[in-house]
Amino acid sequence: MLNQFSRTELLFGKEAMDSLFHARVAVFGIGGVGGYVCEALIRSGVQSFDLIDDDKVCLTNLNRQIIATRKTIGKYKADMMKERMLDINPQADIRVHKCFFLPENADQFPFHEYDYIVDAVDTVTAKIALIIKAQEMNIPVISAMGAGNKQNPGRLQVADIYDTKVCPLARVMRRELKKRGVKKLKVVYSDEPPIKPVEDMSISCRTNCICPPGAQHKCTERRDIPGNAAFVPAAAGLMMAGEIVRDLSDSARSIRKENCI
């Protein structure tokens, strides 16, 4: 029967679509990268999500985040992403967690229900804790490396963390994950050398923070304020979504082959 996912099914087949329909994906971080992951997955037929983010939409998000509009400024990103996703597929099961993932609150999330985890958070501590938790639970995970201070989406690529180069965040993650015995991790990263942001305090969040009232994490708390373009985070998010769709589809095919033997 013709439906909103028919064009996708023509490409991937019914078996893959069934796998996507029954999968639950947890997206940690609904920003420039994570928002586009959600956008692509809901349009691809994934039906169930957990969205985790405690941030609110800020004026400076409008240049790159898909849920950021003048109407959404000051509202929780996770709430706005859920609303947008339900406009695309009203039957979707979307749970919102308005909090920031940390090692101390890891037990608050139903990891046993997740079929795939998206790491689109900013801080190294949270990324490492999330990746270790995913691997302890044997849940596939894909991690976003730095998309800030980059201009060329053509330099983005999918790789194992230990095969990355140039990216400063990936360098730190390689070192820290190796210490913890993590042997592999699928990431999307850019090998474009980071561009140094313009030093102009009149347009910097460092001295002109306009985060919405009640924001848990303000720009003034950051060590560095990166420059961002509309297309690099978006391209990274779409690449991550493509990998998730492929992995979930391949997993379904593998299970079917095993059952047929």
List keywords for this structure.
261 residues; alpha/beta; 7 helices; 36% helix
- Mean pLDDT across the residues is 91
Biggest sheet: strands side by side, in what order? Answer: 3-2-1-4-5-7-6
Distance between the termini: 31 Å
Number of extended strands: 7
Query: What is the count of helical runs?
Result: 7
| Class of secondary structure makeup | alpha/beta
Strand content: 5-15%
Which shape, going by the Cα principal axes? Answer: globular
Radius of gyration: 18 Å
Give the biggest beta sheet. 7 strands, mixed
Low-confidence stretches: none
Q: Could you spell the SSE succession in H and E letters?
A: HHEHEHEEHEEHEH
**Estimated helix fraction:** 25-40%
Description of the molecule:
The protein has 261 residues and is of the alpha/beta class. The protein is 36% helix and 13% strand. Strand 1, helix 3 and strand 2 form a beta-alpha-beta unit.
Give me a quick take on this structure:
This protein is 36% helix and 13% strand.
Topology:
Layout: H1 6-12, H2 14-22, E1 24-28, H3 34-44, E2 48-52, H4 77-88, E3 93-97, E4 116-119, H5 124-136, E5 141-144, E6 156-160, H6 168-179, E7 186-190, H7 231-260
Parallel strand pairs: 1-2, 1-4, 2-3, 4-5, 5-7
Antiparallel strand pairs: 6-7
